[in-house]
Fold these 4 entries.
Entry 1:
Amino acid sequence: MSVAIITDSNSGITQAEAKELGISVVPMPFYINDEVFYEDITMSQEEFYQYLAQDVDVKTSQPTPESLMNIWKNALKENDEVVYIPMSSGLSSSCHTAAMLAEEDEYEGRVHVVDNQRISVTQRQSAMDAYRMAEKGLDGAKIKEILLRDKMESSIYIMLDTLYYLKKGGRITPAAAAIGTLLKIRPVLQIQGEKLDAYTKVKTVKQGKTAMLKAVHKDMESRFGDPEGKNCHLAIAYTASPEEVEQFKAEVMEEFPNHTLEIDPLSLSVSCHIGPGALALAVSKYVDEAE
């Protein structure tokens, strides 16, 4: 039985990478001044940040039912099943929409929608895990079961450069943003499960990086029972400059010398809420389908 793996562009997988990996990627739509754009098709990362700098009205959206079902239909022409891994339901309603569509007669039992509470580099890792399991011959239902079983086995820690976009999106009050800016506070946020939540506050970039590295060490030891992280995957996500990313990469590799490191831009659905200049460190436990 052949299983197609599909995710959305919130995973950070580009259309070009998707072709190389054998994974399909649904482009997420954005509305800027009521004009629709599609991530990595009609809107690049660079163009997106140019719009943000102009302080225009940027809104995230979800794929239309028709566009999503067309992608499923095309995949099912050459495959028996589809495993679809959208962004976390805690961050978008697109997952619930997909789950309802998958209940239609044409897709029931053939399209498996996985809400494993991930986004960006951890969502990418889920798609890669699913592809590997499909290659090993697991069916769609089993792949979904394993991804849901391990859905909480990841974290993303994000250090922000500015509080402006959190204030603009209503996630903090203008007063809190003003005080934070005055005191030069940098929040470190966490995505672990459904929501984007506060993790800690720092005053310098160095302190923020240290906090994220310590948090990952703690996850490896306390949550995953793997102090050396032998069965953990590390990734950097960013909206920062390439120079900052390269410096952080060197620091992460010094801290975790025996690990490989995935590096991807943060998805635009997250970026519109946190703005430019952010650095993130993610850790995921490798999926063991034999458990």
Entry 2:
Amino acid sequence: MSQVFLEDGRVVPVTVIEAGPCFVTQVKTVETDGYEAVQIGFGLDKRANKPTRGHMKDTQVCRYLREVQVDDIGDYQVGDSVSVEIFTPGEKVDIIARSKGKGFAGVIKRHGFDGGPRTHGQSDRARAPGSIGGGTTPGRVYKGMKMAGHMGNRRITAKGLEIIKVDTDRNLLMVKGGIPGSQMGVVQIRRTGKSVKAPA
């Protein structure tokens, strides 16, 4: 993360994202695939196998591939480049990424439980989850009960983040605030329908 000073003197925290160049690696149509989408790739894959190189013989061999929906499928051809020029400052975007993996976590860390009493002889109840349901009725644990388990490493969508600055020379996008995932992680950027709020 970094920070940017606006023209009115306000400082805004931003996340710097390298957003391109991305290359169109495949155009999917209703006739060939049953639906319309564009497959785009990012990053150079130096260790790609023969099938992957054959799939991307007409463009750069990309390491990461994603499918995206577009308004007009006829505007894209295999080998076309997509850069940050498609975005403008002030525009709202959604950032999709995988959150940091935390491993197996208890209910206090995972769900924010308070735990049990720290006194009155409750020596082993400090970080326990407490009751998880009745005995005879319902006689089972309800689905979705908040319990200990795997935390993080899941798909997160941060919606309505404002683009503060677009650097076309270095293919950088500066988005207001933080985004999911760790440094050097792969993210997906899409336009959102949320409107830009005026500063208070």
Entry 3:
Amino acid sequence: MARCNVCFRHCDIKEGGIGFCGARTVKNGVVTARNYGMLTGIMLDPIEKKPISRFYPGSRILSVGSYGCNLRCPFCQNYEISWSEDALSMPDQKRRRELIEISPEELADLAEAYKNRGNIGVAFTYNEPLIGYEFVRDTAKLVKERGMKTVLVSNGTAEIEILEEILPYIDAMNIDLKGFSDDYYEKLLGGSRSMVMNFIERAVPDCHMELTTLIIPGENDSEQEIRELSGWIASLKDKEGNVIGTEIPLHISRFFPRFKMTDRDATEVKKIYRLADVAREKLKYVYTGNC
């Protein structure tokens, strides 16, 4: 057995076994990323699609994703690659046939080749990138050496030690702050709100940060919760201890029935607009999504 230290789960994984996320394994007694360099998707996207609104707006970024996730959100829009049992249990041989296998060097070269189409760099997104942080680290380092930008789109569920490994090579992030109660995180998502908050707090001084909250009817849609969430964001500080959180963009997004939540109604548009107004009591930049 070897212990994985990427997130709060600290899975004990046997030789050749797989951790909860479906992407970490043990090889010769060492925990490693089974999904290293294995892409399920690659697309040249508008950066606003991440969503990131205040970092090189109008540009495009080469967006890549792999498979696996350390949360279990029942409303996941990418569940086929993030936590589908079929996808995560797929044998290595079949997985390799259906994935794009690429090295950090090849991906950095590809990003550079797309500069003439408006590409500014590479975004790690679609599934949860941090469960394969080694590929993120190795690729982002090369992308930055080529003078291009790097973006991380993540649930922020990782230990600070993992963040420290990638932070020198990441220019911007969008982190899902999915709600602002421990009950919501633990019972519905299978996650840790405190870990996400610690991750965001540490990352804010060193890169451009934007946050996203998907509003689920009856779960995290109260004005009180959004007031507390936006108030915490507003309190975040830079390296010198200056409060800069009021400048951090928050994206408040509308839920649509999907995956294991098809019995729910979509979030009312007027609810999204109202909660955005509540967040604007503390934050300068609040965006509404899926409306």
Entry 4:
Amino acid sequence: MQQIDGGVTAAKGFQAAGAEAGIKYKDRKDMALVFTEELAVAAGTFTTNVVKAAPVLWDQQLISGGKPVHAVVLNSGIANACTGEEGAAYNEQMAAAVAEACAVKKEEVLTASTGVIGMQLRIEPIQKGARLLKEALSDTREAARAAAEAIMTTDTVSKECAVVFEAGGKQVRIGGMSKGSGMIHPNMATMLSVITTDARIGQELLQKTLRSVVEDSFNMISVDRDMSTNDTCVVLANGKSGMDEIQEGTKAYDDFKEALLFVACELAKKMAGDGEGCTKLLEVTVKHAASEEEAKLLSKSVTTSNLVKTAIFGCDANWGRIACALGYSGAAFDPGVMDICYKSEYGELTVMRNGVDAGYSEEEASNILSAEAVTVIVDMKQGDAEATAWGCDLTYDYVKINGDYRS
């Protein structure tokens, strides 16, 4: 597997576009389209929030029915959540507008929205955007980038990733884009993401694989412990690579899953590192835990602790906050044997050894924590399981951004 420069147009047969439709913003792209002329198998995971946006309900119905699709249309600025029957109608009209522009059926168009909850979409910008997106559709790198930019809200950077690997003598590509900066907390895939591939794979196997991949990628990130009403991650596979259909238990399947996991993890880390107001990516690796389930509980407990997040922001090596977060995680362990270590591009330092202070240099620790990416390594000394979670620091700007989010 090789990482390449690309996004949703990296896989053969996929086109993309971004457009300024005027849905909410007046001076930026706010609609995106990912399209394949060849019908694609579709898999998806969605928010577990009881309050679900209209596009989530639309996509769940289509994907659970195993229907192949041609497109995913996304809008930013308005979430189309808590909008009742009127919002459901607008969502269907968005799918219909894109279907008409692209000469496909509306049931072959998935939808996704992000933005302010409770606001209603307007049909005029949607119809305008559908036309603009169709005109701009392209399989170029620039088109993929435009689509990724169009789904941003409080994101400061667009998020893309692509890889290529060989299976059955054919080159297979996977490319993706995502958005997510706030209202990020793991329990499915807390954000919007579209991943495309030219692999040939059955719908049931693709769905099974995506669920497994999500558990170790998007479900392992958190910014603010708030779970969105709109979380959507969809994967489209159009089979244009020319390979034979992937079968579970084969090397081709193992390579495909590894590549999909890599793309998902890269997109997840990009979102965690772009948390609203954040200055640092926080990575927490728990090793030698009693089980994988406990390793995940422990690592996520640390990344979601506000006291840990603020300490990382202040470059304060207050390892007691980490020990505390581990202790209330719900995992059972012996605190008298564990080690805690800080690591970054500026070095590595053990701050807790066998459950007590390791006698470290505060100045050295602060310097390590001043990097843009900081890793906390916790050695539980309980077993062989390991897990990694991603988050970010908590800063003054997070409050500023969310204090006037609607203005």
